[in-house]
Write a structure and sequence with these properties.
alpha+beta; disordered C terminus
């Protein structure tokens, strides 16, 4: 609270001179930059070029104004005060309601583990890190996929169980992991994740080491078990997300795999403001959500989607709830409103749910399930199987960092002045 007051004092003292100009220029620069990005994405030709120029020129212009107008000292002090405010605020809020880690229990060493490995995953991580050789040394049966043959990994997983496997594991992408995880959950077997994919979002949120996938294999000799939720979208399992709308439309294109950025830029104008743009209708439990351009349903909610904390991690995977993120932005003004107001913007909807039903005005819609392109008949229903998956993880692993909570000024005031507050679990904290 003191650093926040300090920022206000600095601004007030310079209000008749530098302060007002610094605040106004910063705000205007942000709005123009976001508007430029919108014009760049939603249009083609001269308008796209103009948008790119505005997006670059706006922040550069603000910096030039600060440097040549003698405002950089005021801007620097304000920035430092505000950064200190946010750092202290998040630390106080994090300590006031500590995040309880996912409960791990001791697990016996598997006797007949079976690991399915994709040699092409992550640009060849299986071969580069010698994962197959190390897994065999640890007593695992390794099933290497043939890159030239389309293989049903679900069939391979069921066959491994029929042949006596007491653990199923995957060294591959999140989509492959989800399919094998569903088989492991069906037979109530432990599931092992080897972070050999490209992004490894599921491994990241399990607290595994993504930089060295060999460490994931330590779970075979010194592991513990986590009970986590498994998502379901019309019978298709997912461990991370199900996307509808803009992103799902883009990943359907065959050229997307070879040129992600180029494909997205060429399609964005039609998907955002074109005549054939698709709008999604959804029912989030008992709440209706209409005319969405994009909808993201996740296996457990991601972190607070404000402008400071981001939405790239899930603090836990055992809450029993789906995360829902809906976006509707149809103009540069709405894009700027989203950038300035964040979760309070009318263009962004953030919710949790136990059931999500998505419909459209067509018989079927594109769906991206853990990044894999599919088409599904409407309505498409997303749900969760709480605690369905037993995941075996190494006892020694990096872990999941405590997420940065959203800044809640009312809670901060109560904490600063020593007033007690009631936690979501009903506990009274001083």
């Amino acid at each position: 609270m003191l650093t926040a007051i300090g920022a206000v004092v600095v601004l007030a003292r310079a209000l008749h001179g530098d302060g007002l100009l610094v605040a106004g220029a910063s705000f205007l620069g942000l709005v123009l930059c976001v508007a430029g990005v919108w014009w760049f994405l939603a249009h083609r030709g001269a308008v796209r070029l103009f948008g790119a120029l505005v997006a670059v020129a706006a922040p550069v212009g603000v910096l030039v104004l600060f440097a040549h107008g003698g405002l950089w000292q005021t801007a620097l002090v304000l920035s430092l005060c505000w950064a200190a405010t946010l750092t202290c605020a998040r630390a106080a809020l994090r300590r006031s309601r500590p995040q309880r880690p996912m409960r791990a229990i001791a697990a016996p060493r598997p006797l007949r583990p079976a690991l399915i490995m994709n040699p092409k995953a992550g640009g060849g991580k299986v071969g580069r890190f010698g994962l197959a050789e190390q897994a065999r040394e640890l007593g695992a049966r390794v099933i290497l996929l043939d890159p030239d043959i389309r293989t049903d990994v679900t069939v391979l997983a069921h066959r491994a169980v029929a042949e006596g496997a007491d653990l199923l594991g995957v060294a591959g992408g999140d989509g492959t992991q989800a399919l094998v995880a569903a088989v492991a959950a069906e037979h109530d077997l432990p599931f092992l994740v080897v972070a050999a994919g490209t992004r490894n979002h599921f491994a990241m949120d399990l607290g595994l080491d993504r930089s060295d996938p060999r460490r994931c294999l330590d779970a075979l000799t010194d592991g513990e078990e986590l009970r986590v939720d498994l998502g379901d979208v019309d019978g298709q399992p997912f461990v991370n997300t199900v996307s509808f709308g803009v992103y799902a439309d883009v990943v359907q294109r065959p050229e997307y795999r070879d040129d992600k950025a180029g494909t997205a830029l060429s399609l964005m104008p039609d998907l955002l403001v074109g005549e054939g743009v698709r709008r999604l209708e959804a029912r989030i439990d008992d709440t209706a959500l209409s005319s969405q351009q994009a909808l993201l349903v996740s296996n457990n909610p991601y972190g607070s989607p404000d402008e400071f904390s981001g939405v790239n991690r899930r603090p836990r995977l055992d809450s029993g709830e789906l995360g829902v993120l809906g976006i509707r932005v149809e103009s540069a003004a709405q894009a700027a409103d989203l950038a300035v107001r964040g979760p309070q913007s009318t263009g962004l909807t953030v919710m949790t749910a136990h059931r999500v039903e998505v419909t459209s005005d067509t018989d079927d819609i594109p769906v991206a399930v853990d990044g894999e392109a599919l088409r599904m008949p409407v309505p498409v229903v997303c749900s969760l199987r709480p605690g369905a998956l037993r995941v075996l993880v190494p006892r020694d692993r990096p872990g999941v960092p405590v997420p940065a909570p959203p800044v809640n000024w009312r809670r901060l005031l109560r904490l600063a002045f020593g007033r007690s507050e009631r936690t979501p679990e009903g506990e009274i904290r001083a």
